[in-house]
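Repro:
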Amino acid sequence: MNAPATIIVPVFNAFEYVERCLDSIARTVADDQAVLLVDDASSDPRISPLLKKWSQERSSWRVLSNASNLGFVQTVNRAIADTEGDVVLLNSDTLVHGCWLDALQRCAGNIESLATATPFSNNAEICSYPNFCESNLPCEHPELLIQAMREVGPPQYPELPTGVGFCMLVTRRALDLVGSFDADTFGVGYGEENDFCLRCSKAGLRNVLCDDAYVIHQGGASFSAIGHAPNGDNLRRLNEKHPGYDALVADFIDKDPIKPIRAKIASRYAQLLADSQPHQDPLPFTGERFTPECVREIAYEHWHRYAFAQPLICELEVLDIACGEGYGSAMLAESAATVIGVDIDQASVDHATRRYGPLHTNLRYERGSATAIPLADNSVDAVVSFETIEHIHEQEELLQEIARVLRDDGFLIISSPDRRMYSDVTGFVNEHHVKELYREEFEALLDKNFPRYAMFGQKLLFQSAIWQLGSALGQESHAARLNHGRVEHSPVPAYDPIYFIAICANKASALPKLPHTSLYGDAEESVYEHYNDEVRRNIHAGSVIKEMEKHLDYLKQRVADLESAEPERRSWWARILNPKKN
């Protein structure tokens, strides 16, 4: 790791911005971090006392004061000459958050040929986030955004044609190699960092985006009064000094190589933001609809259906009918081209829109009936209908409506509990199910609208799993079951399913490629852990009971001894065992 860089903050007026900037630095760096505050002859009388206060409170903070106004470029050059090692140039109209400095210095430590590193910002041209080359509003939750940047993976440090000077780490190696900023050409400011970065590139050094750091930038607040403005003569001088600069930047903007990084960050940030919002209270679990706060067996059953459907509807336009709480539609949106979640309950639609709408731009929720779907004919490629058909009497109307909105080459994925195993065998009565179906009834309904279908069974099983590691050579699935001492072999598990899942279409060619079997679990293995926890509790309870039984045997023996003793001794035992009666 390189020696700690010095933070250089050039200051010219803009008191309120400077005050907030210095506060944010103090909150995010170590007490002994070197900070150099350079006052470029500010005319605001509040500036000098503010900078002096910070230098008195922090022994590692120093102040340089220009006797006369030198402009941004010469002010920065003076500060660079007054330091050793790497520097971080930080405009006084910025706000820093999290471990921003650590992120920049990690970048410098990981790239030997580094010249400059620039973080993401709301207002930083080619380093702008979320919208590229735009002045975005500052992120309202920068700490969550920085967390998202960390969680999407290790930083990529993509190459930039030029750094952006609002916040830029500059290595001492680059300064020693190409010199400081060109004050003779660029005067009071604008274009000087572009020129510096281009000189570094020609010397074989790299300018990169530090894609795990974010700094808020107001833009033009501190040096605008003395001509620190874009375009004009300085842009012309920059192109004269570096022919092809405009084309270089235009090509970078056209290709936008940072787009995938921004997209990953935006997706993770939306998830973190949705999880953190107080209005995202879960819908109550009534038994009629599943909510993702439910755990273990019921969660496995419901999540698995959508996980099973996810790869089948990749890049398709999908309808999730009777979407309920909305979690499944959001799952499908991760692989589908578009997803519409439709539910008859307005409260569920509103909840789903708030909770999952911000996560996916290709997802929306609408209120509508399963027997009067609010979509045009032939408008979707796939329909998903999980645990819906048993909740309504108008089951034929449901399938007719689904057939209406499906395109000719579309398909339906639908589930239904098996009445025999779900209710008859168990004696369980689900008050929310108005018309459960036996397998033959379910298939008869499908035949009327979808002559081509593949039927799957679903049941939560306690099984040992064996799977191939490395390159897959086998193509067939295999199941084994011990039945009264004899092992039975079959291509799929030989158990009666609790639920049926059918993939249906008007023609065989419309059916997607289907797996032989599908397994589902969670990373925490919650069902298995719950089982293990119950086993541990039972073992512990057994040991406690064993100790109690041992103690009970002891007491029984004492009673027997007492009863067999002569009267005098029995009286003595009685006084010992019942002192309160004596």
